Structures are given as structure tokens and as C-alpha cells.
């Protein structure tokens, strides 16, 4: 007997026998639901046999037989009613547990999110891809057959999605492309560090989405609920279906604010801020300007996160502002990093350490933020040093800049496209999916071991475009991605350490050392960040102009 838990109130299993009843009772169950018709298998105990033993043990029983592959809408409603009327927890069984799990999924539609339902079933070992459309449709069998169809469908209209669409259109203008994204506004997120440092206005970092969708590309303003890769279909919320010949997946990353207890309730007040949100970056600068003394904590969660340098960029620009105002000596700067190093590529660390010393910042490694009490100005960190028991410590603060934990979006993590960690599973060179050869991914959501930055997406988009065009022509991939990423570390107002690197931490500078030496702070790199990169983004990358982003050809082995 192999019992799989779906919720605290319901577990499922394969066929049970009367001899299992005492063990089921001992496990704490108070009711049993049979979803397998009698006589389906020669070795199958009848419901009456199970019910007799269950009643002797004081368990309630219910019979809702389902023919394999034929779960009706009424069946799901009856199952939901049973769950509400029977004492819990309950154990439902059939031949393998799949029918019982399917009934639960359809009964929960409308009560739980699709992502929560699929996460529970996936954890229990059941693939519910076949009923996704019904779950999205509130548990009812969909009747809509008006599917839209495109040559290429792109999930996500962020930097990666729009750049990929523009790169494809520049190569083959007659392609029928659709971008699926529910957002009205598009953000230049690398600019938020500068907003938090008082250099940019927040408004400089946003545009309306409609103004950026490439000409000739259809914008489907909707949220994705699930994928059916075996049917070349994307299921939208509301159960609309969009079909594709080739799919590009780039919806970005999920900022998991709720993972830190108390954080959501205090963001934007009580001295708690984050440059990872458009509406909060101005508050960062407001706090920095107002602060004259006290403790400022800057946090960094476990990897992976987008722009791994952003948490310390906030620290440096804040420290520089306090230094310029002459109040730095009265401010205790604490950098609490869940990881064990300041920056993942060692070549840039010496220059950064000079600024850590300049701002007299304390580096606290293996410190992961787990809870915040904004009104009390207190935060709690789990300290997980190697070979040492986890210790929870309390720190008071006057200002705290938080970088939230980050994961793949829910609808990606529970899909067939994801690897075990929840990221889209691609070949790190071609960015093609490892299982589905008409799917590609780029940007923050895929699992290649590169830095999750806008600069990475800028290089990836032409690679994906080249390889898709080659695939349409019946050819093998022609372009490869070398893991390039860039992190302009704003160590002070007017100077930047321009970190550029690829897979394995190999340095990949874009400029000769005489122009910009990335291992040292430079004004030229600041000029690049402040004056050159924003127009390069809006007028170049998002328009299919691949300045400094020509794809590298695959070299013969």
C-alpha cells in the first residue's frame, strides 16, 4: 500500500485490500472513498469487502465508481460533496490512484490555483496534464474550439520576449508571431538601481507595452495557465487555447516576497524597501536621503536571483550618498548575504572589497532573511555556516533594503517544460529544450548556468532567432550562447566596476582594457550605464538591432 498525500484532508492510493484497513486507520484516516468499479480486475477486492472491514474499524466509506478515462463533470461535483460530508482525513483509491487524483483536481478547480493543484499532484507522482484544460475551465469540460494558431508563440513580453520577436521579424518579416503577456507596462528593470540611488526617475524606466510590441506581431493580452507540449498548445486563463509550430518561453522570474514572514505587510514603510520593485525604488532613495544615523541592512537571498550584483549595488550607492553628506561615520552598514562570497566571479572581488572598506560595511555571509517586523524595526536571519547548526539571530535596523527570494513562475515550475528545480530545461549552448525540439527558452526562466541579467537576454535573443530560422529550414542549430552576462556594479556615483563574464566565470570583456578595464572602477563604465545602455535597450535590443550582440556560430568539435 503506497499512500500519496495531496492535502491534509485527502490522500490517494492504488487498489487496497481488506488487510490494509487497520494500517489505514492507524495512519489517522477516518474515511475511505472507492473510485474503482467492481470487477475491473481479476485480483481486485470488491467495494463490499473493503466496506465491511472499514466499518468494523470505525471508518466511514463511500462508493463513487469511475470508468477509466471517463471522469464526468458530475463525478467531480459528487466527489467534492463527499469530501465535504465525510470526516477527514480521507483516503481515496482506484487502480493506481490516478482517477481519484483527477476527481480531486476537477473538484478543486475554482477553489485553488492551477499551479497549486498541479504542484500537489506532481509531488504525489501524478501527471495531470491531460485535464489541465478542464481545471482551467473551472473543472468543466471545455467546449471552445476556436483555437488561434501561429508560426511562433512567445511567452512573456519582457526584455527577452520582445527582443526575440524583433530579432525573428528582422530575419523573416512574414513570420506569424504572437506574444502572450497580460501586463500593460514594460519596465527597464536595470534602471531601478539608479532610481534607488537618486540618479534616474522611475518614469524613465517604463513604457506602455503596446508601444513596444514589434510591428506585425500579435499581442495576446492574457496570462498563461499551462502548456500541452504534446499538442503544441498553450492554455490561457479562461481556457482559451493558442496553438504553435514553435514556442519560445521567457516569462521572467517570480519574486517570492511572501517567503519572508512579515515582509509583504511592511514593504514601502517602516524603513523597509527594495529596488526590485518599480514602486519601491523611489522609497529607497527617500530613506537614504533622510538617514543621518543608525543601522542599514542590505540583504541577498540564496541563488539564483536576477542581477546578482543588485543587492550590493544598493549598498554602494547608499554608502556613497552618506559619504558625500558626511554622515557615513554615524551609519552602521550590514550586508547580509545568504551565500558565501561577495561576488561569484573572483576577478572583480578585489575592486569591490575596496568599496566595502571605504563604506566600512560589515559582510555577513550565510545570513538568510526569514522574517521582518517592520513597526518594531527588527529582522531575523537564519545563519547557515558550513558544518554548523543553523542559528536564528535577530537584528535591529533603521533602514533595510531587501532582495526577495526568487523562483521560476508557478505555471512553469509545475509544467512538463521544467527540470527538477522548476526552471525550463534547455541545452545551454543552443537554448533549445532538451525534450521538446520545437521549444526554446531564454532570459531568467531557463536553467542554463549563466547570470540572470538583461545583458544575457540581449545576447540570447539573436541566438534563439538564428536557431529557430535554421530549424524552419530543416537545418541543425547554427548559433551558440557562451553564457555571457554583464553586471555593471555601481560602486559610487560616477564609477562602475563593469563585470562581464560567461559560463564558468570566464571573463568576456566587450571593450579593450584601454577603454574599460572591468576589474577596476571607471567613469567610462558609468557613462555606459547612465547614457548608453538605456537607448541601446529601447532603440536597439527591443527593435531587433543587434548592436554588440551578433550570434556566435557553432564551432565544429
From TrEMBL:
Entry superkingdom: Bacteria
Keywords assigned: FAD, Flavoprotein, Oxidoreductase, Quinone, Transit peptide
InterPro entries registered for this protein in UniProt: BLH_phosphatase-like (IPR005939), FAD/NAD-bd_sf (IPR036188), FAD/NAD-binding_dom (IPR023753), Prot-tyrosine_phosphatase-like (IPR029021), Sulphide_quinone_reductase (IPR015904)
Classification via Pfam families: BLH_phosphatase, Pyr_redox_2
Residue intervals of the Beta-lactamase hydrolase-like protein phosphatase-like domain: 2-110
Any one GO molecular-function label of the UniProt entry: FAD binding
Cofactor list: FAD
The FAD/NAD(P)-binding domain, residue ranges: 150-263
GO BP term, example: sulfide oxidation, using sulfide:quinone oxidoreductase
PANTHER family listed in its UniProt record: SULFIDE:QUINONE OXIDOREDUCTASE, SULFIDE:QUINONE OXIDOREDUCTASE, MITOCHONDRIAL
Protein name as it appears in the record: Sulfide:quinone oxidoreductase
Organism in which the protein naturally occurs: Neptunomonas antarctica
Amino acid at each position: 500500500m503506497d499512500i500519496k498525500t495531496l492535502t491534509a484532508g485527502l490522500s490517494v492510493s492504488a487498489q487496497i485490500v481488506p488487510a490494509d484497513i487497520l494500517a489505514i486507520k492507524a495512519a489517522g484516516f477516518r474515511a475511505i472513498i472507492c473510485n474503482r468499479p467492481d470487477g475491473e480486475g481479476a485480483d481486485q477486492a470488491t467495494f463490499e469487502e473493503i466496506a465491511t472491514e472499514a466499518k468494523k474499524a470505525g471508518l466511514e466509506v463511500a462508493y463513487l465508481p469511475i470508468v477509466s478515462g471517463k471522469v464526468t463533470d458530475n463525478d467531480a461535483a459528487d466527489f467534492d460533496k463527499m469530501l465535504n460530508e465525510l470526516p477527514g482525513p480521507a483516503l481515496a483509491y482506484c487502480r493506481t490512484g490516478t482517477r481519484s487524483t483527477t476527481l480531486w483536481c476537477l473538484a478543486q478547480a475554482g477553489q485553488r490555483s492551477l499551479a497549486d493543484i498541479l504542484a500537489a499532484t506532481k509531488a504525489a507522482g501524478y501527471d495531470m496534464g491531460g485535464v489541465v484544460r478542464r481545471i482551467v475551465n473551472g473543472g468543466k469540460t471545455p467546449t471552445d474550439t476556436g483555437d488561434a494558431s501561429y508560426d511562433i508563440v512567445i511567452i512573456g513580453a519582457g526584455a527577452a520576449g520582445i527582443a526575440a520577436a524583433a530579432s525573428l521579424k528582422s530575419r523573416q518579416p512574414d513570420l506569424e508571431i504572437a506574444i502572450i503577456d497580460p501586463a500593460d507596462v514594460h519596465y527597464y528593470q536595470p534602471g531601478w538601481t539608479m532610481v534607488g540611488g537618486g540618479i534616474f526617475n522611475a518614469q524613465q524606466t517604463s513604457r506602455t507595452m503596446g508601444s513596444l510590441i514589434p510591428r506585425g506581431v500579435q499581442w495576446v493580452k492574457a496570462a498563461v495557465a499551462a502548456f500541452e507540449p504534446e499538442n503544441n498548445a498553450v492554455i490561457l486563463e479562461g481556457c482559451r487555447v493558442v496553438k504553435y509550430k514553435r514556442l519560445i518561453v521567457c516569462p521572467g522570474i517570480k519574486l517570492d516576497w511572501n517567503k519572508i514572514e512579515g515582509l509583504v505587510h511592511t514593504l514601502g514603510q517602516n524603513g523597509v524597501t527594495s529596488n526590485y520593485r518599480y514602486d519601491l525604488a523611489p522609497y529607497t532613495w527617500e530613506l537614504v536621503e533622510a538617514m543621518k544615523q543608525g543601522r542599514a541592512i542590505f540583504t541577498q537571498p540564496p541563488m539564483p536571483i536576477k542581477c546578482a550584483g543588485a543587492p550590493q549595488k544598493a549598498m554602494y550607492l547608499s554608502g556613497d550618498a552618506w559619504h558625500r553628506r558626511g554622515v557615513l561615520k554615524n551609519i552602521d552598514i550590514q550586508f547580509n548575504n545568504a551565500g558565501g562570497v561577495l561576488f561569484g566571479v573572483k576577478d572583480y572581488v578585489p575592486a569591490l572589497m575596496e568599496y566595502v572598506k571605504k563604506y566600512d560595511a560589515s559582510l555577513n555571509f550565510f545570513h538568510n532573511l526569514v522574517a521582518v517586523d517592520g513597526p518594531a524595526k527588527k529582522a531575523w536571519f537564519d545563519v547557515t555556516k558550513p558544518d554548523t547548526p543553523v542559528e536564528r539571530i535577530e537584528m535591529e535596523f533603521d533602514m533595510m533594503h531587501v532582495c526577495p527570494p526568487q523562483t521560476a513562475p508557478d505555471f512553469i515550475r509545475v509544467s512538463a517544460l521544467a527540470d527538477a528545480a522548476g526552471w525550463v530545461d534547455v541545452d545551454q549552448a543552443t537554448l533549445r529544450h532538451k525534450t521538446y525540439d520545437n521549444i526554446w527558452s531564454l532570459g531568467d526562466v531557463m536553467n542554463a548556468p549563466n547570470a540572470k541579467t538583461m545583458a544575457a537576454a540581449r545576447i540570447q535573443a539573436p541566438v534563439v532567432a538564428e536557431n529557430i530560422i535554421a530549424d524552419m529550414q530543416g537545418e541543425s542549430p547554427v548559433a551558440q550562447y557562451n553564457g555571457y552576462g554583464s553586471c555593471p556594479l555601481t560602486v559610487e556615483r560616477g564609477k562602475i566596476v563593469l563585470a562581464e563574464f560567461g559560463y564558468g566565470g570566464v571573463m568576456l570583456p566587450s571593450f579593450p582594457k584601454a577603454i574599460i578595464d572591468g576589474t577596476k572602477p571607471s567613469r567610462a563604465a558609468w557613462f555606459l550605464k547612465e547614457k548608453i545602455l538605456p537607448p541601446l535597450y529601447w532603440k536597439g535590443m527591443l527593435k531587433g538591432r543587434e548592436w554588440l550582440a551578433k550570434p556566435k556560430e557553432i564551432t565544429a568539435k
